[in-house]
Structure formats: C-alpha cells, structure tokens
Amino acid sequence: MLYTGIDPQKKQVQNLAVPKNLSDPYLVEWVKSPRNPLAAPTTANQINASSFRDPTTAWLGQDGVWRMIVGSKRRRRGLAVLYRSRDFVHWIKAQHPLHSAPLNGMWECPDFFPVSTNGVNGIDTSSLMDSGVRHVLKVSLDDTRHEYYTIGTYDRSRDRYIPSKGSVENDSGLRYDYGKFYASKTFFDSIKNRRILWGWINESSSVEHDIKKGWSGVQAIPRTVWLDKSGKQLIQWPVVELERLRTKRVDLTNKILRKGSVVSISGVTASQADVEVSFSVWRSDLEKAESLDPTWTNPQLICSQKGASVAGQLGPFGLKVLADEQMKEYTAVFFRIFKRRGNNYVVLMCSDQSRSSLDDDNDKTSYGAFVDVDPQHEELSLRTLIDHSIVESFGGMGKSIITARVYPTIAIGEGAKLYAFNYGAQNVTIPRLSAWSMEKAQINQSQR
C-alpha cells in the first residue's frame, strides 16, 4: 500500500506499508516499510513540499517497470508527477509529469486507469491492451473542491497521457458527480471484471453540528464505472450488490402527471429507499419548450435561479424526497427540457436543496448538470438513493450524477415522505416507477 505521510520537517512524502499477515482475509494489520520515505521533495527535484500527495494505484509496464503518479502543483499548474520502480521500493522521479494543466492549482487524489471501448467490463490497471482501450485521468481540485476527468490516450513509449481533442481541463468539464462528492478513487475488481468507484460525501452542516452528531463525512455508495458507447463520457451505476437490500417494492405505471400535480408514493420507507423512475414527454409538447439562452452554460447557476418552485413549460418534473406532508421540508430532484437552435433539445437535471431543512445553518446549495439524452427518442430516467441525510441521484441511466447531503428536522423517520411532481405547463407521463424500502447494510468486520 502506497500512502502519503508527513516527515519531521512537515514535508509530504510517499510511503509503503505491507500486510503483517497475508493469511488474514481482512488485512487488518499493516507494517510500515523501514525504507520509508520512498519519494520525497528535495532541492534537486523542486517538488512542492506542501503539495505532494495521494499516490495512484501503480501499474506495471511491458518493460517490467512499475509506474505511479502523485498529485502536485507548480505555481498554478496541476501536476501528475510520474515515478518508476523495478522493485516497488526504489522509486525514481521521471523527468516529465504524466500530464499537467495550467490554472488548476493543486491536483489531489489523481486517478489513472484504462477503460474498454467494447463493453461494460473493467480492465486491470496494469493491462497492456492498446486495442479497444482508452484511458481516464481524474483529478480533484483543492482550490474548488470539485473533481473533473478527461478521456484520452496513454502513450506508453513516452509515458505521456494525451486528453482527447476538445477536452475541458477544469471543473466545468466532465465530472463524476456534480454535487457533494470528492477525493474519489477507483479500483479494478478482478473477481467480477468491473471497475468500482469510491467517493467521499463531505458535510453540509456546521462544524458545531458535526461535533454534536459525532461524524463528519461518509463514503458514497460504490459505483461501477464504464465508458459510454459514444466514447465521450463515463457511465456510473450503483454496484449491483446494493439491490440485495431492496424490500417492499411499490410500482406505478403509465401515470400522467398533469400541470401542478403532486403524487404521493406510499408504501415505502421514504427515509431509506431506492427509487427508479422514467419520464416521457409527448412530441407535440416538446415544441413548446422554453428556448435555452446561449449564455446559460453553467447548469448549477440555472438550477439555482430556476428551483423546483419556478414553473416552466417542460419542467420542473421529478421527485420530492425527504419531504414532510406540509412540504415545509423537501429535497427536489428534477428535470427541465429546453429547446436549442436547430430543433435540438437540452435536458437539465437539478438537485434543489433550498427547502431541504428548516435549519438554516446547513449548506443548502442547489446543484445542476446537463444530461446527454434526446427527449425526442428517449425517456428521461432517474434513480435516486435516499439514506436519511444522503440523496444520490443518477440521471440518464448514469450519465449525470448529483449527490446531496441534507439534514431535515421534521422530514425524518416516519415523518419523511416521497412524491412525484410536475410543475411544468405541459403534462408528463411516468411510464414506470419502482420504489423499494432499503434494509440496513451489514458491515463486515474481523472477529478479533
């Protein structure tokens, strides 16, 4: 295990630890290498001693040499510092980074991995396949606490990563998640041939409340990650194991949501639920969609200005979760459809936390993302995982994801309700809705 430590001079350094007992299936105890640190800032290498952290999963090249990258910066340029080793102990810094980008600031938690262009299966990080493979570089921006990723090509001969032409290398580009989600990391599951993403949901409550609660931050539900058929973005979906917790299924089919309607989804434990729903719009109604102002390029800003209570032509329509019966508290996850020149349509997905809690000490920022779906030919799908203070929403079958951390005061326990709604001027149909109450997860721990 490679990890970042702090030396006596407060410099960030890269260290190694190995399992104490390989027969322990949980690998509970670890031993630090006597050779630590394996990589450190020096006058010669000019690495920023306070911005040098988070080694990636190492990968083995065809030449038998291990490689890893470590996040860093040089002034305002984000760096993926490249190291090589033949024995996983003696690491030598390469002359050039694997990749860098200007005006990014510190690159935390970099992640570099291959994805297949021929299906949903994952690929081992050390795979030597070149045909049918692209590579992903994800970085977490310390300045904005947002992440972004690019898809591109790994030039093995030069140890360089080249993003695809047109890639946006800042947090207005592609993101795993457009809400509270940071410091993420993937790994390859060789048993089920899939790549799994872990991410951290940071808090929305005050430090004072965090101390009273006794926790601050939590891992999101693990997600399986693969390359979309278009090759332009990644798809994410909750790991299939989560479905084992489903119970007490409730279904709704071919339900028309008329203008201003709110429909209660009863029979599920609304504070701990898994909801899958699809929406469709009649083609004749699509022509009535509002025009998208060409200056509306920031989806979060649009969602902040056009929250769930702002009526439009096509939308807002979606779910109100963690809601009380009087609607004093709710988190709304919804879509809006806009028309663009050339008879094209833009789908906006929002997670509106402005009414999520009567406690104004909470961060109630709204989040937004565009979803690459065509409402002329596709239904708009939404899957939302609700877990008391967490709302993870997957739009467009995992094309755009928004995670929210909310702390309602009355929409809790049995006081939490679930609704579908439509505040747009045009009717919307729900072809299918399935909702499940979710059982508690069993956390496996070693018996010591």
Can you give keywords for this protein?
single chain; mainly beta; 7-stranded mixed β-sheet; 3 helices; 44% strand; hydrolase
What's this model, at a glance?
The chain is mostly beta strands. The chain is built from three helices and 31 strands. The model has no long low-confidence stretch (mean pLDDT 96).
Count of spatially separate domains = 2
User: Helix/strand/pairing class, anyone?
Assistant: mainly beta
**Net shape:** globular
Percentage beta strand: 35-45%
Query: C-alpha Rg, in Å?
Result: 23 Å
Average the pLDDT over all residues and give the rounded result: 96
Count of individual beta strands: 31
Please name the CATH topology of the largest domain: Tachylectin-2, Chain A
CATH homolog superfamily of the largest domain: Glycosyl hydrolase domain, family 43
| Sheet having the most strands | 7 strands, mixed
Instruction: Give the uncertain stretches in residue-range form.
Output: none
Report the span from N to C terminus. Answer: 22 Å
CATH architecture of the largest domain: 5 Propeller
Structural features, described:
It is a single chain. This protein has three helices and 31 strands. The strands form six sheets. Strands 20, 22, 23, 24, 25, 26 and 30 form a seven-stranded mixed β-sheet that branches. It has 448 residues and is mostly beta strands. A hairpin with a 5-residue loop joins strand 1 and strand 2. The model has no long low-confidence stretch (mean pLDDT 96). Helices cover 4% and strands 44% of the residues. The chain is globular, with a radius of gyration of 23 Å. The chain has two domains: 237 residues, Glycosyl hydrolase domain, family 43 (Tachylectin-2, Chain A, 5 Propeller); 191 residues, Jelly Rolls (Sandwich), CATH 2.60.120. Keywords: Glycosidase, Hydrolase. Pfam families: Glyco_hydro_32C (PF08244), Glyco_hydro_32N (PF00251). Belongs to the glycosyl hydrolase 32 family. InterPro entries: ConA-like_dom_sf, Fructan_Metab_Enzymes, Glyco_hydro_32, Glyco_hydro_32_C, Glyco_hydro_32_N, Glyco_hydro_beta-prop_sf. This is Beta-fructofuranosidase.
